Amino acid sequence: MGNIIIFAILGWFFYWIFKSYSKYSAYSKESFKNFSISKESLQRSELGLFIALVAKVAKADGKVDALEAELIGIMFDDISAIFPEPQKTKDILKEIFNEEKDKKENLHSIAQTLSHAIKRDRAKQQQFMGFLIQLAFVDGELSKSEEEILSQIAEALEFDPNIYHAMFDKFEQMMKNITPKANISDAYKLLGVSEGDDMDTIKKAYRKLVREFHPDIIKSQGKNEAYMQEATAKTQEINQAYEMIKERRK
């Protein structure tokens, strides 16, 4: 409950920011119905460029942890679903991610290319930057390398530095205030499982809940930041409960 209150406060803050942004053209099946699927075309697309940046943030601290991998996998599903040939699109997006996650030298050029593509759309800038910050914080820790990469991306995107630092500081403060479940029975209850269930059953329940409540970058279009914040808060609670159960069963 404490996490939800924290994110509600954050939601108000981001809603205030969002009110100053004009509406933008949403990503939808209709907008991509004539899109020719190829690796080259996806790499040049806004969402392909975004995936490349996601890869660099996810691997910034040297590893892609389990929750990050889970959320990124779901993100591939969310994005590929709006393109023709979703499975082909998903496979290519994974390929782009895997190629880009260990490259550091092209960070600025990719972010700058994306910046040019969405320069007149501050809402998209807000959405992409917010998702990258959330991804960096989602494992409960923020490394120096993650912070540096986020800062470089924000600069290349020509993102308002005052808004960036306000967003970053809010997430940093939020992470200090989040505490794991104190009671193991509450953790089981949150996942909808019992202490008698095996870990395979518990893992399936966990993954189902993460998929249900994950921050969805496609569905968040046109909504205020509270949508993504509430989804992230729930995802954090679910992950904390799962980690507590795993630790107890070692």
TrEMBL record:
Residues 186-250 form the J domain. This is Heat shock protein DnaJ-like protein. It holds the Pfam family DnaJ. Keywords: Stress response. PROSITE patterns: DNAJ_2 (PS50076). The lineage of its organism: Bacteria, Pseudomonadati, Campylobacterota, Epsilonproteobacteria, Campylobacterales. Gene3D superfamilies: DnaJ domain, TerB-like. Signal peptide: none annotated.
